[in-house]
Design goal:
Layout lengths: L1 H14 L12 H6 L5 H21 L4 H46 L6 E2 L2 E8 L10 E8 L2 E9 L3 H21 L3 H15 L7 E10 L2 E7 L5 E3 L5 E3 L12 H4 L6 E4 L5 E5 L1 H4 L11 H8 L4 H16 L7 E7 L3 H10 L1 H8 L1
């Protein structure tokens, strides 16, 4: 493109009105080259523009003083553009390094969730508002334990590195306590005590939903100031799981004195549970209208959690105009029917191999 611009200026000058009218526009070439090329490319475009400018100026009888002024300006623009190109390249390399570190931190903090965990089919979608960093203050985890599958979805107050540090603390405690504590409320209690010791400010807190599947057909939910999960029955109806006794966010129990309660819900084959953060429900469109998550879930729910979340996420981005302004996490799990599990197992490579043997 920079070379084409230089050639276009030369052609206009050659076949139009010549002289000093068009020659200063040759500086556009190296200036534009700085946005896409390295310093060497900028220099090549600048040399080409200077040679063509000197040739045209001499052929058309431009006074030496005016031609020298044009060429001096062209050299100055080329040098400045070369410096800008070098700085741009350096910033791009730094950004690439930051992205690689952020990706490593994300994989360490928010470990990938497999498609199948225990008896559940699972899908996760996470979008950080700081798109270049790719990590934020939202957190999630889903792990099998001796006491059944347990999961957490939460949102740390604040942004930036302090929020990431708090999220890492919560996830570390959850993963350890989920294996050690038979009681789900005891898991929440350990997270609460650790946050009370380690939060930097009394204004800091973490909203979270901690859930578990201790035995067949029973789902346990503890809500600590977080948005209510959405329960999708096998029939397709969507119900918000509002807490029976609202509890404060994690880290604020000492101020209120209230303790969270344990809700036990029936969870049958074909049922699904969606956990999410407020970056989803507080996303607004250009008219300042919130995204209707329950209605969107009813539109996109299907037997494949990954496909459901893909439809929800795409609709969410369309609602906000393509860019979220807050971190957003979605975790969906589905309890397939026994017939589905047997069918999936029969289609697996291992099952086919066993049948052939």
């Amino acid at each position: 493109m920079p070379v084409l611009i230089v050639c276009a200026v030369v052609l206009v000058d050659a076949f139009g009105v010549g002289g000093m009218i068009w020659l200063p526009l040759l500086a556009v070439g190296p200036a534009l080259a700085a946005t896409t090329n390295g310093p060497r490319g900028v220099l090549c475009v600048g040399v080409l523009a200077a040679v063509l400018g000197a040739t045209l100026g001499t052929r058309e009888g431009v006074p030496d003083s005016e031609l020298a002024a044009v060429l001096t300006a062209l050299v100055a623009v080329t040098l400045a553009s070369g410096l800008a190109s070098a700085l741009r390249g350096r910033r791009e390399r730094v950004l690439a390094a930051v992205r690689s570190v952020a990706e490593a931190a994300q994989h360490a903090l928010l470990k990938p969730v497999p498609e199948t965990v225990g008896p559940f089919r699972v899908a996760v979608r996470y979008s950080a508002a700081a798109a270049e960093a790719r990590i934020g203050g939202d957190l999630y985890a889903l792990i099998p334990t001796p006491y059944g599958v347990r999961m957490i979805v939460g949102d740390v107050r604040g942004k930036g590195l302090p929020a990431v540090g708090t999220a890492a603390l919560v996830l570390g405690i959850f993963r350890e306590a989920a294996y050690d504590e038979p009681d789900l409320l005891a898991v929440v209690g350990r997270i609460e005590r650790s946050l009370a010791r380690n939060l930097a400010s009394d204004d800091d807190f973490v909203t979270a939903v901690v859930a578990g599947y201790p035995r067949e057909g029973h789902l346990e939910v503890v809500n600590c100031g977080h948005a209510p999960p959405l329960l999708v029955r096998a029939s397709g109806s969507v119900v918000a799981v509002d807490p029976t006794h609202p509890a404060p966010p994690l880290g604020l129990r000492a101020l209120s004195g209230e303790v969270p309660s344990l809700q036990v819900l029936p969870f049958a084959d074909g049922d699904q549970l969606l956990l999410y953060t407020d970056g989803v429900t507080e996303a607004r469109d250009h008219g300042r209208a919130f995204y209707p998550l329950a209605e969107g879930l009813e539109r996109h729910v299907c037997d494949e959690p990954a496909r459901t979340l893909t439809g929800l996420h795409d609709e969410l981005l369309a609602h906000v105009g393509g860019r979220l302004h807050d971190d957003a996490a979605l975790l969906l799990l589905r309890k397939p029917a026994m017939s589905e599990a047997v069918s999936a197992g029969s289609r697996s490579p291992a099952a086919r191999s066993s049948a052939l043997m």
